[in-house]
């Protein structure tokens, strides 16, 4: 079945450590997104990419980095510069230029040890 | 994209219709209304969307007022599994999702 796969489901980070969250889609979508969700809150945009080898900062990009070397993949790195990384991270994709909705993965929950 | 206003929480009895309102008074003519829901610790799930006509699918119905300033999502026979946070979003479709704003949504509790 087509969809978005995020891994791992749970991730723990030590202080000062970088960690990378995986997001893969087989929907042939051009655009991919990373959101952060804190308890009881909505989604906030971290980074987005509308085409391979190009990406743009969202509203809360500080302390995060991304790459888009392949259409199917959009990994997110949470760097040590992100002082409050504990959150639920969601990846999404969509076909641009249509009224079709965004598709979401099932998220990665990141916690600090 | 226009912002939306939704009640923080709602209750519904199992088997009854759940009617979730959304205000989007600043919606522009080319913005669609989308509804998603999120069950705890999962990603948001798309439910339905529309421009100005009422829409129905296997999950729900979407009623959009004639002036398009508000809409209602209807779950015709709510079950316990419909307990979730429901998000109402408006966005222009020829731009990217980077303009999509997910607020806090409405937390729906379906009670037996």
Description:
The complex is a heterodimer of chains A (113) and B (112). Chain A is mostly beta strands. In chain A, 0% of the residues lie in helices and 50% in strands. In chain A, strands 2, 4, 5, 6, 9, 10 and 11 form a seven-stranded mixed β-sheet that branches. In chain A, strands 1-3-8-7 form a four-stranded antiparallel β-sheet, with no helix packed on it. Chain A starts with a strand and ends with a strand. The mean pLDDT of chain A is 93. Chain B is globular and about 40 Å long. Chain B has 112 residues and is mainly β. The chains are: A mainly beta (113), B mainly beta (112). Chain A binds chain B through residues 4, 6, 31, 33, 35, 40-43, 45, 48, 50, 56, 58, 88, 90, 92, 94, 96-99, 101-107, 109, and chain B through 32, 34, 36, 41-46, 49, 51, 87, 93-94, 96-98, 100-105.
Any descriptors?
heterodimer, A: 113 residues, mainly beta, 7-stranded mixed beta sheet, 4-stranded antiparallel beta sheet, 11 strands, globular, B: 112 residues, 5-stranded mixed beta sheet, 9 strands, 46% strand
Task: Describe the structure concisely.
The complex is a heterodimer of chains A (113) and B (112). Chain A is an all-beta fold and 113 residues long.
Query: Gap between N and C termini of chain B, in Å?
Result: 38 Å
Oligomer, anyone? Answer: heterodimer
Radius of gyration of chain A: 13 Å
Low-confidence stretches of chain A: none
Radius of gyration of chain B: 13 Å
Q: What pair of chains forms the biggest interface?
A: A-B, 30 and 23 residues
Alpha-carbon distance between the termini of chain A?
A: 35 Å
């Amino acid at each position: 079945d087509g969809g978005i796969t995020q891994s791992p489901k749970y991730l723990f980070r030590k202080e000062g450590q970088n960690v990378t969250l995986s997001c893969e889609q087989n929907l042939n979508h051009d655009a991919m997104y990373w959101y952060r969700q804190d308890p009881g809150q909505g989604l906030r945009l971290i980074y987005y990419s509308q085409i391979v080898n190009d990406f743009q900062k969202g509203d809360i990009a500080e302390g995060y980095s991304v790459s888009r070397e392949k259409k199917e993949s959009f990994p997110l790195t949470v760097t040590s510069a992100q002082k409050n990384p504990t959150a639920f991270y969601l990846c999404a994709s969509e076909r641009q230029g249509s009224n079709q909705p965004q598709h979401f993965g099932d998220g990665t929950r990141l916690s600090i040890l | 994209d226009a912002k939306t206003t939704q009640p923080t929480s709602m209750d519904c009895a199992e088997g009854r219709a759940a009617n979730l309102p959304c205000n989007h008074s600043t919606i522009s003519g080319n913005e669609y209304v989308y509804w998603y829901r999120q069950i705890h610790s999962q990603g948001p799930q798309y439910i339905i969307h529309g421009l100005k006509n009422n829409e129905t699918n296997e999950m729900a119905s979407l009623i959009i007022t004639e002036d398009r300033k508000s809409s209602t999502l209807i779950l015709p026979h709510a079950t316990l599994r419909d307990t979730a946070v429901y998000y109402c979003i408006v966005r222009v479709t020829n731009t990217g999702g980077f303009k999509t704003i997910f607020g806090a949504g409405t937390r729906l509790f379906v009670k037996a």
